[in-house]
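To the team - uridine-diphosphate-N-acetylglucosamine complex, inputs and output below.
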Amino acid sequence: MENKTILVSGGAGYIGSHTVVELFKAGYQAIIVDDFRASSERMITGVQDLIQTDVKVYRIDICDKDKLEEIFASNKISGIIHFAALKAVGESVEEPLMYYRNNLHGLINMVELADKYGVNNFVFSSSCTVYGEPKGTRKVHEGTPIGHTPSPYGATKQMGERILQDCVNSSKLNLAVLSLRYFNPVGAHPSGLIGELPNGKPNNLMPFVTQTAAGIREKLTVFGNDYNTADGTCIRDFIHVVDLAQAHVSGLEWLSTVEGSNMEFVNLGTGKGTSVLEIINNFEQLTGVKLNWEFGSRREGDLEEIFAETKKAEELLGWKSKLTFKDAIVDAWNWEQKLMNE
Ligand code: UD1
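Output:
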């Protein structure tokens, strides 16, 4: 039988855990590699409850190359999905070296071992942050030039793409890479068994909304109401995490058709922009919970409006988002309520 074992670094994380579930549903095996610094064992329990199978989990830091190599040596791996990375924008400004070491050293170890063990299908977790502040356009496509990104976190995503592109261009490596540029992942698995577990105070909007509704946070501050948008608040492309997870399966299918070395970059979003205020109003309507919120000043570094051109994902991967930000709100709240009742 064809070997379909995927090494998923960061597989106990938010997007990683949802992806592992979709991999098993599609007939793949997944091996999770995670150091659990930003995740918890409960995600593994949730994944296993969902797929009704035990998953192999290695608790290691991918910067430890010897330990990582043991995993490559003792498993027949056919592909890699590389999620493991630090992702807090603000923290990356304070701790740049930690971000460069972890995100880049981890990636380099992974690619070196992929090469050594002949694993040539590689999915990289990238972000729309690589576009920086796109000039003129709010809808970005994959050909939109890479812009200046103010945070070290964003820089590690740009550099990660560059490192992979250079490896693909080298005649010494045989590597097929898909770099997936996520817009704003939100929501949780509809079962309520897995979801987002922010480390401390959330930076992102959706977990802040659900934690405020749950009474964990006193008040949500909407950062700015004087943007040049219909309601004055910022606009983002909120993509349901289950849709996003399924795109990784489509990505692996595409990679399996690639002959030789190649690299593609693909936006993962819905193609629609939704404002911060729309999220809040819809949250209140859909859940019946009144949110305590107020307008505050703009957050430094925020873009006014950005959303994805999604044609390439459809054409190359045959993937399109199916769920809406409203589904994501319902599922995120369901998950938050499960956490509240524990
Ligand atoms: C952020 C990161 C981006 C990263 C993405 C991962 C920044 C500048 N960018 O994107 O690099 O890939 O997360 O999901 O941090 N908002 C509020 N109040 C809050 C929280 C957020 O009003 O308490 C607003 C923000 O101002 C923004 C929108 O909600 O307009 C979305 O914010 P967020 O969830 O942090 O995502 P991004 O900033 O788009």
